[in-house]
Write a structure and sequence with these properties.
7 strands, 12 helices, single chain, nucleotide-binding, two-stranded antiparallel ribbon, Rossmann fold, mainly alpha, 3-stranded parallel sheet, globular, 304 residues, aminoacyl-trna synthetase, Rossmann-like_a/b/a_fold, Trp-tRNA_synthetase
């Protein structure tokens, strides 16, 4: 579904060498390439014309890259998602889903269920599977129109994890150590119980956004820092692998990623807990903190 980001990283875009240096691709520039008829690039090294190429990653995209100056008729793209960590509550609705209904009419929208983010904390497999289906049902019940928006499960698109790994190689560890949410959640869970995935959570979020060349990202106040990291990471990758310096070494130059902008909703950017007015709603801490949207809809259907 996304643009050909991984192909842009890992396939040949110049007559001499690929975009990424050999150190990031496991040896010589051609080691990670193999012949296939599935992906045909308009640019091929001399001596290899008439042959298609694909990288060893699981994604091969035939879509062209997004033009730097798209036509005015092309809608701006928005990407957003909700974790299936339990009951969808009014905080999710007011802060995200409610705004999607109006956004889907004016933008190219992708709304997905971020189940990979949900496993950064302890979880039960069966419960997560059920919660994922319930979340999809909530999306549709709240008015998300699949004829206008793309709805999918994050883990079903392997490119999210693959791009995350590439982005991790360009992410300074100091950037992640400064994330406020990581400090808060690790303190509550205890350092000995904290998984590495909780630390790298913002990199996966960056992958979710950059993979689809998003123009805007609806975020609440608690996610603004993560989006800022995404923006800085996009700029860093563009500088390292898309700038003039890399062009002189044989790369194609130009920006690889769009730098997304925050889209903060006029209301619901931060919905507070019903038991603690100083804390944000969290289903992880206590079910008494929120009003379940799923229970409300389920009761309404039963009554009908």
């Amino acid at each position: 579904m996304g643009r050909s980001i991984l192909s842009h990283f890992l396939t040949i875009s110049h007559s001499s060498y690929p975009l990424f240096p050999p150190s990031l691709c496991g040896g010589s520039p051609m080691n990670y390439m193999k012949k296939t008829d599935f992906f045909r690039s308009p640019r091929r090294p001399s001596g290899l014309r008439g042959t298609g190429f694909r990288c060893f990653c699981s994604v091969s995209v035939t879509e062209p890259l997004v033009p730097e100056t798209p036509p005015s008729s092309v809608k701006k793209r928005i990407v957003s998602g909700v974790q299936p960590t339990g009951s969808i509550h009014l905080g999710n609705y007011l802060g995200a889903i409610k705004n999607w209904i109006s956004l889907q009419n004016a933008y190219d929208t992708l709304f997905f269920i971020v189940d990979l983010h949900a496993i950064t904390l302890p979880y039960e497999t069966q419960q997560l599977s059920k919660a994922t289906k319930d979340t999809a049902a909530i999306y549709l019940a709240c008015g998300v129109d699949t004829s206008k928006a793309s709805v999918f499960v994050q883990s079903h698109v392997r490119a999210h994890v693959e791009l995350m790994w590439l982005l991790s190689s360009a992410t300074p560890i100091g950037w992640l150590n400064k994330m406020i949410q990581f400090k808060e959640k690790s303190r509550k869970a205890g350092d000995e119980n904290v998984a590495v995935a909780l630390l790298t959570y913002p990199v996966l979020m960056a992958s979710d956004i950059l993979l689809y060349q998003s123009d805007f990202v609806p975020v609440g106040e608690d996610q603004k820092q993560h989006l800022e990291l995404t923006r800085e990471l996009a700029k860093r990758v563009n500088y390292l692998y898309g700038g003039r310096k890399w062009k002189k070494l044989g790369g194609r130059g130009g920006a690889i990623f769009k730098v997304p902008e925050a889209l903060i909703p006029p209301a619901g950017a931060r919905v507070m807990s019903l038991t603690d007015g100083l804390s944000k709603v969290s289903i992880v801490l206590s079910p008494l903190q929120f009003v379940s949207l799923y229970s409300f809809i389920h009761q309404t259907i039963v009554c009908l």
